[in-house]
Amino acid sequence: MPNSFGSLSTLSVGGKPYTIHKLAAVEAVHPQAKKLPYSLKILLENLLRTEGVSLAVRKADIDALALWQPKAEPNVEIAFTPARVLMQDFTGVPCVVDLAAMRDAMKTLGGDPAKINPLVPVELVIDHSVQVDEYGTDHAFRDNVALEYERNQERYTFLRWGQNAFRNFKVVPPGTGICHQVNLEHLARGVFTDAHGVAYPDTLVGTDSHTTMINGLGVLGWGVGGIEAEAAMLGQPVSMLIPQVIGFKLSGKLSPGATATDLVLTVTQMLRKKGVVGKFVEFFGPGLADLPLADRATIANMAPEYGATCGIFPVDAETLRFLTLTGRPAELVNLVEAYYKEQGLFHDAHTPEASYTDTLELDLSTVESSLAGPTRPQDRVPLRTMKAAFAEALPKLKAGVKKPTAVPLALAAPATGPFGAKEPAAVTVPPGALHDGSVVIAAITSCTNTSNPSVMMAAGVLAKKAVARGLSTQPWVKTSLAPGSQVVTDYLTNAGVLTDLEKLRFNVVGYGCTTCIGNSGPLPEAVSREVGAEGLVVSAVLSGNRNFEGRVHPEVRANYLASPPLVVAYALAGRVDIDWESEPVGTGADGAPVFLKDIWPTHEEVASAVGSSIKKESFERIYGAVYEGDASWKALRVPTGDLYAWDASSTYIANPPYFRGMGVMPPAIAEITGARVLALLGDSITTDHISPAGNIKKDSPAGKYLLDHGVEQKDFNQYGARRGHHDVMMRGTFANVRLRNRLVPPREDGTPVEGGFTRHLPGTEVVSIFDASMAYQKDGVPLIILGGKEYGSGSSRDWAAKGTNLLGVKAVLAESYERIHRSNLVGMGVVPLQFKAGESAASHGLTGDETFDIGGLVAGLDKNFDGAARELTVTATKPDGTTVAFKAVCRIDTPQEVQYYKNGGILPYVLRQLLAAK
């Protein structure tokens, strides 16, 4: 190793020596590096340690980071080498599929398949496959887990194969917890040590956008697409521009009645307004001293919602307390403390303020009870104005509702299994009980809040008070409790509040990410029928982080994020159009009205319950056998061998086409000419709109494919479970039930058509997006997508890019992009183009009926899209032969991304690199 700055040093902890790369060595040469933000110092150590090890890291890169200019626009590329990779099963299965396919391709090209193997630790937590079929019963968890195995046995067997076939790859079995909470409570190391005794900060990338939750522990990491994660697994550094860093100063303390959820919704709104897409956010200030680590993790979790790459907190005394509480070994806790203090990274009251690109500040005492919705997490609604806010939002929500029908919306039938119906038989809807604003789903779910003892305990205490007053949840509300780990159930039981939650039908339905990702299961038939027959805008209230259109449930249009105690409160009321100040939650057993203030938990009640019920022994016992799994997991019959034996009849796992016909050398890049528009879309098109998610409709292209392959509708499962099969997934791309493609004319009554439809140009016939794509590809016609602002926001779904590629889309032209999706498009060989500031499809008079030529692509590649080469010429030819020409910015942002694009994507690039390696 060059060790250009002489940074190698020795740190002794407990009599044991460790080799470290001291930041002080760089600070001696570049004194201004002392003022670098915490997160950039973590990156600086990463570059010091990998200088010369990775060909992508040079002394000049270290100099550039040390001399960081806070206000400068990012333009310097560096290579970040994460210490590990975190996955969940929805995104993890296609990653393992791709690795298995790469082994096949490596063999075909004459290389050694064993080269395709994770070079850094990879941990996959199965947490996204459990669905809320059974609820409100003491056997809900048992039944849901049984159905989970019934539906996903093939996927789980495949993952077990991967665990045996690949080195450095571990799988946490179903029923353990949500990956981010398991990461926070167990997987995170704080400090890594390698076989040579080198100690360095724990860092990671994850295949879920909420990987940032670990930033609350002072660990730098963020979500990437599965294709980037695979490259990181195979030893490729993550290419990035040195980011701007926004400092967020916290002061004061939360007021009584305000929760961590209210805090994070406030922070999300503030940072979205500030504009932090592609930036790091770093929290500092006196308010950290009294902010529990769980609250920090809650704030860090929602970095994707406020648009930042990460939202990080420094390591301090609270970090050490949490590591000790969660059962980390004392020697590790001591190493974390010693390492961060030695590096000047340990935060205390005397830590000087770093230099930031910009700052903003929040006095925690000003935070008030809030929700966010009805369709975006940044749209905070103060609880006191919720009734009026819903009334204001209703007309827009109502506009997309079809005329009332006599039957519910078409849904995939609930899977039948050994347990029969998946809702309590006694569910009835009293005449006139449901109306616009009725709450039909109340879910304590998602990693954001189920990791936080204070808000979970607040829900339990509120339930206890409600039961004591004789209150019940409304019968039409589908209730669920999905803890982030088994530790949660332990402390709720220890506090004596789990039974009260169960009395209100908040029974444990599973340990995983459920309602927040659309695994909400079917509504009770009576509720579904009423919603469809009356054309109602009904609501979900969930303690999640995502509420985008069509995500939670296809029949629910108004979705509000809220704290767990508010979820329980809205289940009691059964509606969101309630004024909590003047209207009661319900009527008590004594016949008197009960108001929210009567049952709202006090700060003292929650603190006392948390302090007495959370024990280190729970973490040690539960995580002591974290990889063992239950009897069903152990009973899986697992194939062996380094190469996977693909089953041609499988509808879950298939060898993808990404390497089909691939040569040792990449082919020449061609210009994009004569392209047609597959979809003309508006603002805030999320990866939920693009990527296949949720239930599979019988009459959809994916549903027809499954029926044609002998799969009965009851066994459709959901898109997320079939992410390992490209034929299913490409048919579900751009098939979201709320997608509005402006190429499709409205109905006769003027209401917009929603769903995965388009026109097959130049004709007028409306067909599915998949069918149009196949027709265009048969004729050799390239495709583009036209979009608005914040294109690709939301989850880090690799299939949003993979599906786009497989549908024949060569370029996307949008007003702005979210970070992960832009990167994923490049990683799949799709060009992200961006309208120049102030311009749009509308400003250029584009209707989507044009044909498009994109000039300068090949020339731009030769110049790495630097300077003037970044602006390409787009020429749109209208049906009458007239043309519109304008400049668009190519968002292939780094030289490394240029190499990915030249190779047809990141996976072919990595494969060729490994093939060439000696």
UniProtKB/TrEMBL annotation:
It catalyses: citrate = D-threo-isocitrate. GO terms for molecular function: 4 iron, 4 sulfur cluster binding; aconitate hydratase activity; metal ion binding. Its cofactor is [4Fe-4S] cluster. One of its GO terms (biological process) is tricarboxylic acid cycle. InterPro entries: AcnA_IRP_Swivel, Acnase/IPM_dHydase_lsu_aba_1/3, Acoase/IPM_deHydtase_lsu_aba, Aconitase/3IPM_dehydase_swvl, Aconitase/IRP2, Aconitase_4Fe-4S_BS, Aconitase_4Fe-4S_dom, AconitaseA/IPMdHydase_ssu_swvl. Its EC number is 4.2.1.3. The keyword Cell inner membrane does not apply. Residues 75-574 form the Aconitase/3-isopropylmalate dehydratase large subunit alpha/beta/alpha domain. It comes from the Bacteria. Keywords: 4Fe-4S, Iron, Iron-sulfur, Lyase, Metal-binding. Pathway: Carbohydrate metabolism; tricarboxylic acid cycle; isocitrate from oxaloacetate: step 2/2. Residues 704-837 form the Aconitase A/isopropylmalate dehydratase small subunit swivel domain. The keyword Iron-sulfur applies. Catalyzes the isomerization of citrate to isocitrate via cis-aconitate. Belongs to the aconitase/IPM isomerase family. This is Aconitate hydratase.
